[in-house]
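Quick log. Single chain, no ligands specified.
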Amino acid sequence: MGTSRRSSASSRKRSSQQGAEKESSPASFARGGSAKISESERALLTKLFGKVWSDLGRGGARKSASSTRWKRRGVISILACLSAVGFFFFTSLLDNTEEQAQDQTQEETQDEQGKDAEQTTTLPSDEEFLLLKVAALSPNIPDYRRKDWMPSGWRDEDHDCQNTRVEVLVAEALDRIDWDSSRQCKVQGSRWYDYYTGEYKNDPSELDIDHLVPLANAHRSGGWAWSLQKKRDYANDLTANHLIAVDSGENRKKGAKGPESWRPLYEEYWCEYAWDWINVKVRWELTVTMAEHKALEDMLATCSG
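-> predicted structure:
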């Protein structure tokens, strides 16, 4: 049996050598045997896998029609594998590109938010400044009592567990907010711009919610005559720039002082601070002293344009 196999192999080898040259190319292999491929398949295989096909084709004459079909299937399997690998790398590259684009977009958005917080100032008309009522402080007003304005701290106007302080922190947050629980009642972290120092803050414990026009200042400017309800409405007014999140240390230095006695450390904010002060005084029909009026004029002189 062994001799017969070797003789048969020698016979097949001689027969193979006679046709090896013409069967060594993909095109000639495609023409031989019972395995038929189209002209488009032949061109694709010749272009992309000529060497692989040629190596397989050298043994074409030694194989039966059945083995020829197996070789064709092998090449098709190679094509499928390479296509799968190519698709994997392409999708991986696409995913990485999309992630990088998202990160860049997020960074640009945060930068723009910071610039807006730092630079954007919406100025009222000069008419509002003219509406300020200048008056001397009356010596016969009752003493200021904070509990008349905030008897139990910040109130929760809409009963959603977020009091006025939290509402302001949420409104001024420049980034995603970290909450203490799923109820979202207390803010634990985010990013804020401090107008008084011109710096960014990430820890809400470093921030006070400041009444731009302090409660005691409002009291002596006419608020002393208000009802308790109106005083508490003023203390929790969420109109833009009535309450602002600022550095706690600077806020406590300010206390109840007006612009004649205290101004923000960050001078580029003076213009907006003066206009916001004027807006609060006019909207709530509060008076200003002569010294206060002069200080506001000085601060408005820093406005550009």
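The first strand starts at residue 133 and ends at 134.
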